[in-house]
Amino acid sequence: MKTAPRLLAAVLLLFCGATAVFGQSYVAFGEEWRRIVEGLKFSLGPLKIDPEFSLRNLGYDSNVYYDNREVGDYTGTVSPAVTAYLPFRRSLILYVRENPEYNFYLHEKALRAFTNSYAAGLKYLLFRRFVLTGAYQYNEYQRRISTEIGTPTRDVSRTLSAGLYYETARKTSIGISVQSTRFSYQDLLTPEGEIALARTLNREEKSAAAEFYYQVFSDSLFFLRGGATEYAFESALAADRNSTSYQGYAGLRFPLLGRLRGTLSIGYKRLVPRLKGLASFGGLVGNTEIEARFGWFSLRALYQRDLVFSYYENAFAFVGNRYAGGISIYPAAFLRLDYNYEIDDSDYPDFWNPQTAFAPVPHRSDRQQLQTAGIVVRLWRTTGLGIAFNKSTWTSSGQGFERKRNYIAAYVTQAF
Q1: Cα separation of 59 and 76, whole Å?
Q2: Which residues lie closer than 8 Å to 405 by C-beta, 6 or more apart?
Q3: 69 CB-near residues (< 8 Å, 6+ apart)
Q4: pTM for the full predicted model
Q5: 204-245: pLDDT as tens digits
Q6: Distant-in-sequence, close-in-space partners of 296: CB < 8 Å, separation ≥ 6
Q7: What is the CA 373 to chain-centroid distance, rounded?
Q8: What is the reported pLDDT for 61?
Q9: Which among 406, 344, 332 has a CA at the least distance from the CA of 373?
């Protein structure tokens, strides 16, 4: 048996988990306190309330399974959420969050689903400089977890995290954090018995990281982050995916308000497989998502590169590159016109899973192209009601993987 295909499979694993750390979401205690105490308008006794409401995809989808059957249906997703904060003596912030969600399908009743996500956590200021954080998060969704899976899938993640940070008066922060997340998946069309989706993707990820944030320009932050992540899959058939990666990231996080917003991030990872005979490997990863506002229009650009675990047992994983650009025009204070264009490239290498009897998979590349045009009317402040038309096509070098999908839907946005 040749080791090169197996080595390439392991090499690609270095990209997995990149999106989990790209967010760089740490916020200094004082900044978080002001956002809650001064920025939130709703109160219930000592609690500060942050309500949210999301209405998505209320319309017609021409291909709800996103496959060659092209089954159409009327759909809609309602997702209210509320976060309650308890700020105490300018040194402690407690919070709880609740987010139920309902997915509706008029004819495809098997796809109807009610899910619920919730979280609780704290941020505690010690000696005016040290910040202790801790959180538990349970997320349950019904959605497409990757471009290769057509049927909406129920995925559940359970995360425990903690961190300790040192903050200076100039908004510089240095800290360490740890996190453990367990992922589980369910194919909605085969809820009973042994499921390939769960067998190949169910896993636990444990990570530890050191972080550094430094204020540059006005409210922008430069960040560095380095650490390790361990991947442990539940099934013995997925044992060759078990590995430990060592990674480092650097980038800029721009302010949430202002002319320029978003994140620039580039990183490097080295993967050390646990399966004997597979060599370690290193490579670059990156994620950039920027929006620039100029008067009556704004421009958007996005580039992401990571690895997505494949649910094909003999394909193991695919490398994904996402490119996107868009423009919004504000012809009036209450009106916005949107256009977005996106390309998702998925590259399957030549390798096979030595733990199964499946034959090797020939090199395969897929491309998904999406175009979206829409109009949004402001309801109040940053909340708007929109309607969008989306056209997507998927081409593949493999046989039988071509597909197309159109939908027109209304939605509510809180980012007018």
Answers
A1: 6
A2: 61, 62, 63, 66, 390, 391, 392, 393
A3: 63
A4: 0.83
A5: 999 999 999 998 877 788 999 999 999 999 988 888 888 898
A6: 329, 330, 331
A7: 23
A8: 96
A9: 406
Q: Encode 105-137: b = buried (16+ Cβ within 10 Å), e = exposed.
A: beebeebebebebebebebebeeeeebbbebeb
- Give CA–CA dist 103/121, Å, rounded: 27
Please write the tens of the pLDDT for every residue from 249-293.
Answer: 999 988 755 688 899 998 888 878 787 765 566 777 888 999 998
The predicted pLDDT at position 251 comes to 92
The whole-angstrom separation of Cα 212 and Cα 168 is 12
Closest by CA position to 358, among listed 397, 313, 318: 313
Residues in the chain: 416
Residue 67: both structure tokens together: 């496959």
The token pair at 43 is 């109160």
Q: What is the pLDDT of residues 84-142, one digit of tens each?
A: 999 999 999 999 999 999 999 999 998 999 999 999 999 999 998 999 999 999 999 99
Among 91, 94, 84, 21, smallest CA distance to 304 is for 21
What was the pLDDT predicted at 13? 37
| The CATH classification of domain 4-413, taken from the options 2.40.160, 2.40.50, 1.10.12, 3.10.20 | 2.40.160
